[in-house]
Design goal:
By secondary structure, the chain is an alpha+beta fold. It contains 12 helices and 11 strands. The protein has helices at about 10-25, 30-45, 55-65, 90-110, 125-135, 190-195, 215-225, 230-250, 260, 285-300, 310-320, 325-335; strands at about 5-10, 75-80, 80-90, 110-120, 140-145, 165-170, 175-180, 205, 215, 270-275, 325. It binds NADPH dihydro-nicotinamide-adenine-dinucleotide phosphate.
């Protein structure tokens, strides 16, 4: 960390910087546009750990030959409610964008449909997978499994990834409800960001070399052993994601890190599954009233807020003020 002042970038400057890094790293123009826009949205709404900070990781994937810079994902409908993607060893988000319109159409047709995708790299925040479905009036649940770092309750070595899940649903008269969360107490990128920025985590997120819960990001990065959120309950959710993600999609299991390690890459090519539900096909005409009622019970209830609404506050602020970027990160990106 340096003491140099941070630089403020507008969201459009964030996107332009991201795109130039990706194009320079050899990624094709369409994929660069898709990923750069997601970097912009991550810096706009959060989590910022999945914004500009990820660009060196993307560049490493491309320079090492781990990811295909010119991937042409293929999407096939293999059952009335199942859309299957093969990412051609490119970035998941490009395949997901290609599948989105058909997934929405299938969910409206069947009431429920799923997109499952393997042979791709998912490095981003899941909220941007589920959010667009809620904007289309659907309820969405998305998962992906990632490299093994989370110790099962009572276990001595990591089995699960930080395996995130995201949920989204429409909210009458307002922005959709969208939340996403890792199965670990703290997401890996947040630990790396805390280490890079030189501060402790707000709560113990993993084990130190003595096997004790720790807030020191460097100690946790040394053991690479993270704690699940909510003890055995978080570990059970991580298990579920391993099944819905890796097993259904045919992605890499979290424990299978050999290919990732051979490329010195951050993450495995986990499996992603995104389930889309059309509430208007489920037979409860008062669905929207239920959502409004649940939210009303939370809002104004002490300091509680609807999960995920922090992003709307972030969005309002960054759209006006831009985002401040640490000088060492900016210098690193400009050098890529
Ligand atoms: P957080 O613990 O920071 O937040 C989890 C969710 O809870 C967010 O939707 C957040 O939204 C919401 N939230 C936070 N505080 C409150 C509160 N007080 N009241 C109500 N809602 C709240 O996220 P994680 O650290 O678990 O995950 C960070 C990101 O990392 C996620 O985007 C996840 O998808 C991503 N990730 C990606 C992986 C991959 O392999 N691609 C692997 C692991 C994680 P908000 O603050 O906006 O309200």
């Amino acid at each position: 960390m340096t003491d140099a002042p941070t630089k403020t970038l507008s969201l459009e400057e964030v996107k332009a910087l991201a795109k130039s890094v990706l194009v320079s790293a050899g990624l094709d123009a369409h994929s660069s546009e898709v990923i750069a826009d997601l970097v912009r949205m991550s810096e706009r709404d959060g989590p910022r750990s999945h914004g500009l900070r990820l660009l060196p990781v993307y560049a490493q994937y491309l320079s090492s030959g781990y990811a295909n810079p010119k991937a042409a994902p293929s999407i096939r409908r293999i059952a009335p409610g199942v859309l299957r993607g093969d990412g051609d060893n490119g970035f998941y988000q490009v395949a997901a964008l290609a599948a989105r319109a058909e997934l929405i159409e299938m969910a409206r047709e069947n009431g429920i449909a799923a997109f499952t995708c393997a042979n791709c790299h998912h490095l981003g925040a899941l909220r941007f997978d589920t959010g667009p479905l809620a904007e289309a009036g659907l309820v969405a649940l998305g998962v992906v499994n990632s490299l093994s770092m989370v110790v099962p309750q009572g276990g001595v070595r990591p089995v699960f990834g930080t395996n995130p899940m995201s949920f989204a649903c429409p909210r009458p008269g307002s922005e959709p409800i969208v939340w996403d969360q890792a199965s670990s107490m703290v997401a890996l990128m947040d630990i790396k960001m805390a280490a890079a920025e030189g501060h402790d985590l707000p709560r113990a997120g993993g084990l130190d070399t003595d096997g004790q819960p720790s807030t020191d990001p460097n100690a946790i990065l040394e053991t690479r052993s993270l704690l699940p959120f909510g003890e055995h309950k978080g570990a059970a959710i991580a298990f579920l994601i391993e099944v819905l993600g890796a097993a259904l999609a045919g992605g890499t299991l979290s424990v299978d890190n050999q290919e990732r390690e051979s490329f010195e890459a951050l993450n495995i090519k986990g499996g992603t599954t995104l389930i889309a539900i059309d509430p208007s096909r489920f037979g409860n005409p008062a669905f929207n009233d239920y959502i409004a009622r649940i939210c009303a019970e939370i809002e104004g209830n002490g300091a509680a807020r609807v999960p995920g609404d922090g992003r709307l506050k972030n969005r309002a602020a960054t759209q006006v003020n831009g985002v401040s970027v640490a000088p060492d990160l900016l210098a690193q990106l400009q050098a890529l």
